[in-house]
Protein 1
Amino acid sequence: MKAVAKAHTNIALIKYWGKRNDELILPMNNSLSLTLDHFYTTTEVQFDEALQTDTFIFNGETASDSESAKISSYLDRIRQFAGVQMYAAVRSVNHVPTSAGFASSASGFAALAAASTKALGLDLDRKTLSILARQGSGSACRSVFGGFAEWEKGSRTDGSDSYAVPIMSKTEWDVRVLSVLLESNEKPISSRKGMKRTVETSPFYSGWLEAVDHELKEIKTAIRTKDFERLGKVAEANALKMHATMLGSHPPFTYWQSSTMAVMEEVQHLRDKGIQAYYTIDAGPNVKILCLPEDEQKIRDELENLEMVKGIYGCRPGPGIEYKEKLP
Ligand code: PMV
């Protein structure tokens, strides 16, 4: 009754922003991401009749009550899905600098969905795994797959048609993502809260929804034809639109800090010098820069001159869910 699974984080190039159902985590729009090789979570789950409660060890230490409660309520869904009542011991090792503000919920819930179902002897297809991962954290449904993946929002109320599908495998196109670590104060507003406020109060939200379908079509053409400039332009424009919806919310908010904007400006300077670099930003201050392998070093050299840059992590396209023998 034990299994270990490894899942990588992903960066959305067309963002998921807004839910139509909070409980099942059903999104308002399709989104598209690239799974990254550098950041991942490995999780071991062991179900045991003898346990009186779920236990959760995170990076070698007992998790906080609030973290444990989140994991336990997710395991309730898995227990209900599998028709069992046993508690589980969960051990998770995160190769994502979480404290630095890089999101780990995508790799975390994708690994937990895979390890817990496998531990219960279920042999699930990727679509079902993606549906289950989605119910932990929306973006996790895309981390089931490697390379580029699209989360189809679906239309059913039960969420049975809301899952990710692979668009291009990780070996087909070597694009790079530089994750730029900036000053990392604790997030003022979780993505969950931020989306909710935006959907409920921002007059710009309808504009976001209007634009996103065309941007998805555009980015899928860019991927199919390996047109990097087209990919970068649409990804950057999509990120800016998502952040614009927040400025229109009531009360207004933003995840950007002055360092965020300094890096955005630097990327623009790089482009003015003929280097193909584009940025994208999630629900936090850090910036991810999309580039091609031949430009990676030049971009690093420029960024290292900026005093607010605390670290640069180079990422390549990464794999989907993998099962392992044991925790590393
Ligand atoms: O899955 P969550 O709740 O962590 O939300 C992710 C939201 C964004 O990172 C901003 C966009 C995305 O599609 O990943």
Protein 2
Amino acid sequence: MSNESLANLLKEERRFGPSAELAAAANVTAEAYEQAKADRLGFWAEQARRLTWATEPTETLDWSNPPFAKWFADGKLNVAYNCVDRHVEAGNGERVAIHFEGEPGDSRAITYAELKDEVSRAAHALTELGVEKGDRVAVYLPMIPEAVIAMLACARIGAAHSVVFGGFSADAIAARIKDADAKVVITADGGYRRGKPSALKPAVDEAVGRVEGVQKVLVVQRTKQDVAWTEGRDVWWHEITRKQSTEHTPEAFDAEHPLFILYTSGTTGKPKGILHTSGGYLTQTAYTHHAVFDLKPETDVYWCTADVGWVTGHSYITYGPLANGATQVMYEGTPDTPHQGRFWEIVQKYGVTILYTAPTAIRTFMKWGDDIPAKFDLSSLRVLGSVGEPINPEAWMWYRKNIGADKCPIVDTWWQTETGAMMISPLPGVTETKPGSAQRALPGIAATVVDDEANEVPDGGGGYLVLTEPWPSMLRTIWGDDQRFIDTYWSRFQDRYFAGDGAKKDEDGDIWLLGRVDDVMLVSGHNISTTEVESALVSHPSVAEAAVVGAADETTGQAIVAFVILRGTANAEDEGLVADLRNHVGATLGPIAKPKRVLPVAELPKTRSGKIMRRLLRDVAENRELGDVTTLTDSSVMELIQSRLPAAP
Ligand code: WT7
């Protein structure tokens, strides 16, 4: 990104410091940065002591064969024991681990003592089905407690899980089963989605029929809908777990024992099986969950709205919170079922104190209107988190005002499936936050921004985000493909992890994420980030959401095309509004960033994890046939957008 255009972009001057009350009682103070800077490995060795080890590690990092890291390599532990049993042994068995809220309104509170029994039974059941240490188990479940129980049962017996998001197709399941060579699949008859039962097992039946090697399919009964049954292969979860003992002795595994594989879809090529291991992963998820959310396990009620099928669910529903003995809410359904206030009703019902959600959800709530959250008592909230994409400053402000009553700190957490845990984020009791910026690498983490030649950019400069030191929860490789691991992450810049995100540093040295590098546009020789133009559009009172792409253009190389969703009463046919929006971007970011076309649409194409699929919008903007739409949440969205389009000028 050229500095001249950067100077125009994102002049964000609002600042919000932590309240004196929160700062005084915060789990982590500014001293942590100093301590970690003085002795990074010593800092992580100390964090590893949050866990209970069967054999304490004496070695912190082995980086003798980069980029293949080993953390705490001579230590041994059982991850499930750390997430469950030890809390019971410490006398907290009666504490609620999971407040489950089903979409139809059924609910279930599971204490740590009950969770221990359930995980133990499931571990025995997997063993009975032939699963052994070192095997892989695929998990394809709705957002129900059995998803967490299944993951922990695998961890308990040393089998790696490969969770496949419940919205994916038979093709995606088959590809993942095959790549990981999974022996058992855990699924359910179905789950509830938008007010009705939605089947899951047929996709598994189809997938398993296409690949070799799956011996058993374990089926949770959730909706009680009819399912096809393969005798000898299919087993009901409730039938097999019911007869198992609640006593199960956890075996200690090496810190580097595989914990899970999680596939990232990526934009090109076959999905990458990101491999995470045990000790380092659990250390960093536990530490960050403690530090970034300021979690007080005795009093907080934590809620992460992600699905366990994504890394956010792995690290901040299953592993981090449970390692910390947190009480959390788990919700099965969508935010608008049965009404658009469902999330706020849940916050009120359970007295949620820490909420972790995504910008895409926040922008949707903005679009639905301020009056909806205003009907509920949200006064229990004290820390708000964001993850998944850059958060537009206006969405950040909306979140703070309408959900956080202008008092809750917002932690905008940057990380990836590959990083395993949070890497860049404010600390709620320390950081003076800036709307739209993830700001600073967490204690013990080393991140910076470099230019094309790998030179670190000065404050005020922009380029590529890189991580310059190994971290405990880093991916260890791409499953079965070490070379691809090296090529994808460690070859663009020597000795540095290439994250694939554009970023800039502001005058204070704080980091602003600008989206994937593939989403940077080149307009008349200027690099302009889609994120910044989108944020400028969202800062206009008539715009709820925006997606910007660069479309090939004869004169300027690329031209900026913006797709916008209007707020409440704004009229899509209003020509004056379109001109107004173009001028608004010009005034905010500079004339170079003014979109050539602004197209009001009703919906935007998103992946199931909520990321806008700009690739498809680029196809539309360039009048091309659409590329692969199979990872869209709703493929009819594209037809809708195309039908609304005027012919290209
Ligand atoms: C990509 C990773 C991290 C768990 C969920 C997504 C984007 C994520 C932020 C943020 C700006 C963000 C990046 C990153 N991203 N969080 N706070 N600010 N961008 O995991 O699917 O592996 O995606 O999400 O582009 O590279 P993922």
Protein 3
Amino acid sequence: MKLTIIGTGYVGLVSGACLAEVGNDVFCLDLDADKVAALQAGRIPLYEPGLTELVQRNLAAGRLRFSTDVAAAVAFGTLQIIAVGTPASASGEADVSQVWQAARAIGQHMTDYKVVIGKSTVPVGTADQVKALIAAELAQRAVVVPYAVVSNPEFLKEGAAVEDFMRPDRIILGSEDERATLLLRSLYQPFQRNRERLLLMDVRSAELTKYAANAMLATRISFMNELANLAEVLGADIEQVRHGMGSDPRIGYDFLYAGLGYGGSCFPKDVRALRHTAAQHEVPLRLLGAVEQVNRQQRLRLVAKLATLWGGDWQGKRLALWGLAFKPNTDDMREAPSLAIIEAVLARGASVLAYDPVAMPATRALLGEQIGYADSPMAALHEADALLIATEWKEFRSPDFEQMRALLRAPLIMDGRNLYEPKRMRELGFVYHGIGR
Ligand code: UDX
């Protein structure tokens, strides 16, 4: 099938590469000429396991191309997949201006049947507005061209995005147009594997499903973080409680990890946007307000603990920080808890020496030399008064504890991801603080 992807951010790029991989002919449009030139040369502007190989292979095979040519992009695909960014505006509302721009461009250039597919996370009702915008452009041109607008939200997790696209749990399709539904069914046929994974529903339900799923997961995380704080004062261990809870199949084990709160490009933005939509319709989502509040506070949980340990005087103190990215296997710093931690530590007058296997260039671009960057986890510990762990990268799981103790000025570990056993850490001579245990 011939298809066009509008927007080469995370979702657009992964979707384009994966759809090319199964044999489709894919045209990726982006307005950023430098980015397009880099992509056309096989250089990927983000860190995502497996993606570079996939893009390079499909470029070489001629099934994937990148361009800034809007008219050519609209002419190319029967399927027009909109995967542009929908960042949060100051009020929390999703900014859908790039979606409007894409819709107008399609309406201005289309000459034959198109299925316009909304993949960006957008407020409920956006597909209807896309439909109206295209209709207005066609009316302006005084032409009649058939088209359908469907919603097909994406559920990619950063760090596992290629795998998630290739082996989806479910494919949500909001479509009220039979011809479009048939085309989308055949587009996703290669990803069905052993059972039917496509869930067909109306457009608005599909749009809401994406927000609902992310809000539910964010709620689980904030619930566990609040419970962890209670477990701590009760002398219980949230990790044991988590096992006990997860073994109930109605609850399940996933997304029950207490930590430093959720970050990333989706949960914070989507929870805010859903609350905003709800408030607009005078159906306030009270639970989600609490989810956000708990999340904000959780980021600074270990800094608050450090304050009780270090007292008022942070001048001359140095904090070693392991992990900067909001989660492992990505260099994405959007809403990373580490940023809130760094800001609070610097504001109190201490310094930070950080290590992250991939996110240091991205952090430098944001913070410059406000913090120091170490070449290895051990180098970050040099003359540090404490170590704080903010991301559960694999390489932090089994370090040389003897060496760590020798390098740290004080044997204090603040573990925001509960990587180690508290009892063992005490035996090794550390003062060890995790989350909820
Ligand atoms: C998420 C959704 O999982 C995905 O379906 C959607 O399409 C986009 O948003 P992503 O943001 O890539 O994906 O990361 P995810 O792995 O879901 O983690 C989000 C945040 O929650 C991270 O900061 C992570 O550290 C935190 N988290 C996750 C917890 O604190 N505890 C958990 O148990 C799970």
